[in-house]
Amino acid sequence: MNNAELKIGCQTFTWEMLGKGWRGGPDDLVRAIADGGYAGLEITDTMIGYYALRPADFARTLAVAGLTLVSFAFGSGSGFTVAEKIASDLEAARRWVDFVAHFPGAMVSMGSATVVSDGRRDEKFAIAAECYNRATEIGRSASVAVAVHPSSHHNTLLFTRNDYDRLFALLDPRVGWVPDTGHILRGGQQVDDTLSTHRDRIRYVHLKDVDAGGIWVMLGEGVCNVPAVISAVREAPLFTGWIVVEEESDHAGTDPAAAVRKNRETLRRLGF
Questions:
Q1: CA torsion angle 166 169 174 178 (round to 10)
Q2: Which of 3, 7, 126, 185 is least enclosed, having the fewest CB within 10 Å?
Q3: Can you tell me the distance from the alpha carbon of 194 to that of 217, in angstroms, rounded to the nearest whole number?
């Protein structure tokens, strides 16, 4: 068993869902997540705000709040599947790897490969794999691990178990994976089997819940077997110990801070 200490983090997408309705900044996110009882956070390129060019300042802000940067997540308008955009996608990867290098142990998470143009699906898997593989090499040069985060959102290339298997077969073994329980369930997959099959790629996990119809619900109110998921990922040899809670339900969209507090309370009731 992997003996990494279990740590609970929070993803900032809960606020990102508000779009233009969110008028706060990264300091507000840090305060809300710390007040919610979390030990760390994963933030995105959309939400990092004025700290994008000030990693040392962000590190100090997190330290004052008692938080750790788990990972920095970014996506691309190319969906990482457009050959002509690989150079710019890798430049973005290099930028965020350099940022994350200021935070020992933190990772870079690249968003799901997504279909944004015409063309054969086989070609898109190959392009995405090239992008993820080359970004991982960039990360290695700075001692920053890089992982892919599949999603079930519109036009994702990574929805079903077969999609996961096809991409992972093309990836260098050093490319990590951030499994997301909600997206796995929405893709009709068996969470335990998918986690077990690709366990060697798991670095940390996004924990969220859906109902039987795939609609987002608050953690503990849907079909995700939280204790089973945590038990499974703890068996992964490269698991860092981080369980990152992400919330996409309608409730979270109305009051993100309250939603993430409630999710932390739910995990405490479950013994985590």
A1: 30
A2: 3
A3: 21
pTM summary value: 0.96
What are the C-alpha distances in Å from 6 to residues 21, 39, 65, 108, 179?
A: 34, 10, 19, 20, 16
21 within 8 A of 254, measured Cβ to Cβ? no
Distances (CA, A) of 249 to 60, 107, 196, 221: 31, 26, 27, 11
**Cβ contacts of residue 68 below 8 Å, gap of 6+?**
7, 9, 39, 40, 41, 62, 103, 105, 106
* The residue count for the chain: 272
Determine the Cα–Cα distance for residues 113 and 128; give it in Å rounded to an integer: 6
Calpha distance 88→80 (Å, rounded) = 10
In the chain, the largest separation of any two C-alpha atoms, in whole Å, equals 49
Nearest C-alpha neighbor of 2 from the set 269, 203, 206, 244: 203
pLDDT value of residue 2:
75
Query: Cα 200 vs. chain centroid, distance in angstroms?
Result: 17
C-alpha to C-alpha distance for 43 and 133, rounded to whole angstroms: 22
Q: How far is 95 from 108, CA to CA, in rounded Å? A: 11
Q: Identify the residue whose tokens are 């369930």.
A: 185
Cα–Cα distance, 102 to 53 (Å, whole number): 12
Residues 6+ apart with CB under 8 A from 153: 112, 114, 183
56/185 Cα distance (integer angstroms): 38
Q: Does pLDDT of 253 surpass 90? A: no
